[in-house]
TrEMBL record:
GO terms for molecular function: histidine phosphotransfer kinase activity; phosphorelay sensor kinase activity. It comes from Pseudoalteromonas arctica A 37-1-2. PROSITE patterns: HIS_KIN. NCBIfam families: sensory_box. It comes from the Bacteria. This is histidine kinase. CDD domains: HisKA.
Amino acid sequence: MNKISTKKELLEYSESIVNTVREPLIVLDQHLRVVTASRSFYEFFRANHKDTVGKLIYNLGNNQWNIPKLRELLETILPQKTSFDDYKVEHNFKTIGWRTMLLNARQIKRTQSKDRIILLSIEDITERNAIQEGLVKANKELEVLTSDLESAARVKSEFLANMSHELRTPLNSINGFSEVLYDETFGTLNDKQKQYVKNVLVSGKHLLLLINEILDMAKIEAGKMSLTISHLPIRQVLHEITGLTADTANQKKLNMCLDIADDLPPIEADSLKVKQILYNLLSNAVKFTPDEGQIGVKTRHTDTEIEIIIWDTGIGIAAENMEKIFEGFFRIETPYSRLTEGTGLGLPIAKSLVKLHGGEFVIESEGVNKGTSVRITLPIKQKSVVKHNENQNSYS
């Protein structure tokens, strides 16, 4: 009585374990007939106990399980091994349709009867497989799209660069002849004529500035912007640039505060590019600061780099526009900014040129009408040399 009770308890215990497994699970005897199946098996494959237990696995569900790959596993592979893992099988079941499954099997020998039983677990990966295939397809499509976008960007940059060159040549002639006329080199002009020539000259110079910015941006995007390195007396350059913007600042009655260190060391940098960066940033400070406001420049340095901060008490930048200002042609829409001219390329170009030097570019603002602070760092010595000339180094 105790043996029967113990046997019954063991059977109930083993069936409880089988039923706790989330994946469908079948227990087969050595003749490949079903000894028991988990609750999840019955639910997933829409089977019942009567048509399952004691049946040859291949005959389950009106021979739905007569799968060539499954036969290979159970009759060829398993007799030679005690187990197999993650064997992928695809099959179209009458009750549940097409399924992709991973089969895992363990062969166990009973100690008393010497018989063997087979535990066969079935993991349905149909949805996961479809998602993976979809991801692979999407990645391939994304690669193609990325390649197309990169190609389009290159074509755009090359077009802008070529068009800028083509436009600059006649525009330089227009500006040159306008200057000759304005200077009255070949005869005097009446007041109206002189005003018209001045308008042509001012507009021409402004247009040339815009074209140069577009050309610079096109070169940067195309990866064709290079640096011509020389030893640059940065303290002298800062005083030079602040002097260039002093007249405009005075016209607006701006208070310019300079805190430029006397011991600022010279740096290895592209002179024209650094002057372009500083002039651009300081011009912005003047342009976007209302009359009687304040602008300033201060510096500090370590043994390896210098830091330049250009600040103002101007219109500031809203938090939602902080990233947008580095997008080409983006202009912040405020009543004050509509009075100013520009392409919106100044900051993106300045940031790219600082990065090209191996420096850092950080812009901060507490919000609209709360001013702006731009901090740039430039290395005192450049690290990577592309080519070396007698008088200068070129970096790219």
